[in-house]
């Protein structure tokens, strides 16, 4: 295949090392040292910023490396190397390219989680109009931070020549040891908090439906969903996510059709802007998917166009679901209930007021939790494997045990932890890990002298101003929530 017409992407010069990695990818075997010259790689997968076409070209089995010296103008030496594709089957060593549809399903499934169940509860005081505007702004914010993570992740894979890098490796490269510490503790905190919330709510649903003890339902959910994550291949997990999302759409349509019969349209006109700040942490948490962005970059082999499409489309679907869901729920509850001082879960009110809606709400809730649970288990297990410096390739049981067992135990200790875990994780976890840190890492990456950072295009426009707005906005919400919580004590 002929190389693209755009200028070649220049990469740094570590020793050439090509190793197949199962279910992991590296964008391109990086460069080799050649005396007196700079080695540049023409890669269709990583078009340079001056490329006129953003579409990916079909990859060839060979990569042409051209080594040239400043003194060498007439003569050029070329070296052809056999390319080992990023996603390789460990047994057959055949390429298993990542699927864009599977990537979209993974993002959508991770986003549509337990957070959607809490949105009506935290937005009932602000009203539908104000909460809808807040949802759109939070969606834009979270898409931007996800693209920043993808940008830094691909740059880090290029520079390190790694088959897949986690947020820890990204933080070490861009922010140093302090950034690593903040990233590690924030990542672990938010993932465990959300997994605890997911297991707690799913076990409650299964206990009510199956009539089994709470510990049995929690164990059953963890074993089934955790087993899919551990034993399943990329294609199987993508297929399971696709089926679950289809079931979510069907149950969601049934829920809207039944509940909308009692919809009070005048109730949707309410807008209380003063109550908006209190809803931001949970709404932002509802759009969390960034934990699987490193997995996306690996599975899609660093294709920036596909990564951008997967993130934007994969989060746009949940945005539509959130808006319709919130309208239906807030339009069916009475204003007397909303104005009461006691906290009322609108879903619980909906279950008690309409016997037909109850089972549909339970099915939708369980499916939403299951899809998000898969994404968070994959993200945390990969993170722990990287943190423990376990060899890449085959799935290791230790990261999955550390991912599945603690949330199971803690959810059984406090079955009522659902809303508390979501609010705490949204305020002090999501906005630090997926708000401030992506902006800081991208700022450092763009200002560095790294050849890969200068050669690859940016996914989020606006330069330093955009990064400052993202990091400053997240910091403002965290400080506001902290001061308000301190004032209540």
Please outline the helices and strands:
Blueprint: E1 9-10, E2 38-41, E3 62-68, E4 77-82, H1 100-111, H2 115-123, H3 128-160, H4 167-210, H5 214-231, H6 234-259, H7 276-286, H8 293-299, H9 304-330, H10 335-339, H11 346-353, H12 357-387, H13 397-413, H14 418-447, H15 451-455, H16 463-488
Antiparallel strand pairs: 1-2, 2-3, 3-4
Overview of the molecule:
With 489 residues, the protein is mainly alpha-helical. The protein folds into two domains: 79 residues, no CATH class; 389 residues, Amino acid/polyamine transporter I. The chain has 16 helices and four strands. It has a four-stranded antiparallel sheet. A hairpin with an 8-residue loop joins strand 3 and strand 4. Helix 1 packs across helix 6, helix 3 packs across helix 7 and helix 6 packs antiparallel against helix 12.
Strand count: 4
Q: How large a portion of the residues is in β-strands, by DSSP E?
A: under 5%
The total of helices stands at: 16
**Overall residue-averaged pLDDT value:** 75
Subcellular location: Cell inner membrane
Biased composition (Pro residues): 1-17
Keywords: Cell inner membrane, Cell membrane, Membrane, Transmembrane, Transmembrane helix, Transport
InterPro entries: Amino_acid_transport_2
Give short descriptive properties of this protein.
Amino acid/polyamine transporter I, mainly alpha, 4-stranded antiparallel β-sheet, 2 domains, globular
Summarize the structure.
With 489 residues, the protein is mostly helical.
């Amino acid at each position: 295949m002929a190389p693209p017409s755009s200028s070649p992407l220049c990469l740094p010069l570590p020793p050439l090392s090509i190793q197949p990695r199962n279910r992991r990818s590296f964008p391109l075997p990086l460069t080799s040292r050649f005396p007196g010259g700079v080695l540049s790689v023409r890669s269709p997968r990583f078009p340079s910023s001056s490329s006129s076409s953003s579409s990916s070209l079909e990859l060839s089995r060979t990569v042409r490396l051209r080594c040239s010296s400043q003194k060498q103008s007439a003569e050029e030496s070329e070296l052809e190397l056999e390319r080992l594709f990023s996603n390789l089957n460990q047994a057959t060593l055949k390429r298993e390219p990542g699927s864009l549809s599977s990537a979209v399903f993974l993002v959508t499934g991770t986003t549509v989680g337990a957070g959607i169940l809490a949105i009506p509860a935290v937005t009932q005081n602000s009203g539908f109009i104000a909460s809808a505007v807040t949802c759109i702004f939070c969606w834009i914010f979270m898409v931007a931070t996800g693209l920043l993570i993808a940008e830094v992740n691909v740059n880090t894979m290029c520079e390190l020549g790694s088959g897949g890098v986690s947020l820890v490796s990204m933080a070490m490269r861009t922010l140093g040891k302090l950034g690593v510490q903040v990233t590690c503790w924030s990542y672990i905190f938010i993932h465990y908090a959300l997994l605890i919330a997911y297991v707690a709510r799913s076990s409650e649903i299964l206990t009510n439906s199956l009539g089994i003890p709470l510990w049995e339902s929690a164990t059953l959910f963890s074993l089934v969903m955790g087993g899919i994550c551990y034993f399943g291949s990329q294609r199987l997990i993508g297929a399971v996510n696709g089926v679950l999302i289809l079931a979510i759409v069907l149950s969601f349509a049934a829920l809207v059709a039944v509940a909308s019969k009692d919809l009070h349209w005048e109730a949707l006109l309410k807008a209380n802007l003063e109550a908006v700040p209190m809803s931001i942490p949970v709404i932002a948490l509802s759009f969390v998917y960034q934990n699987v962005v490193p997995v996306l970059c690996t599975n899609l082999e660093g294709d920036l166009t596909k990564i951008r499409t997967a993130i934007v489309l994969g989060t746009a679907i949940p945005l539509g679901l959130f808006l319709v869901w919130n309208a239906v729920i807030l339009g069916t509850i009475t204003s007397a209930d909303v104005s009461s001082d006691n906290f009322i879960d609108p879903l619980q009110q909906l279950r008690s007021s309409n016997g037909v809606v109850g089972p549909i709400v339970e099915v939708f809730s369980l499916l939403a939790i299951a899809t998000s649970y898969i994404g968070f288990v994959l993200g945390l297990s990969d993170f722990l494997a990287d943190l423990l410096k376990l060899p890449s390739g085959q799935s290791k049981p230790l990261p999955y045990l550390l991912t599945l067992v603690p949330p199971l135990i803690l959810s059984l200790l406090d079955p009522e932890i659902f809303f508390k875990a979501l609010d705490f994780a949204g305020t002090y976890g999501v906005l630090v890990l997926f708000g401030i840190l992506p902006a800081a890492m991208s700022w450092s990456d763009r200002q560095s002298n790294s050849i890969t950072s200068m050669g690859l295009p940016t996914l989020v426009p606006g330069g330093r101003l955009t990064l400052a707005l993202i990091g400053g906005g997240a910091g403002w919400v965290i400080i506001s929530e902290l001061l308000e919580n301190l004032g209540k004590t």
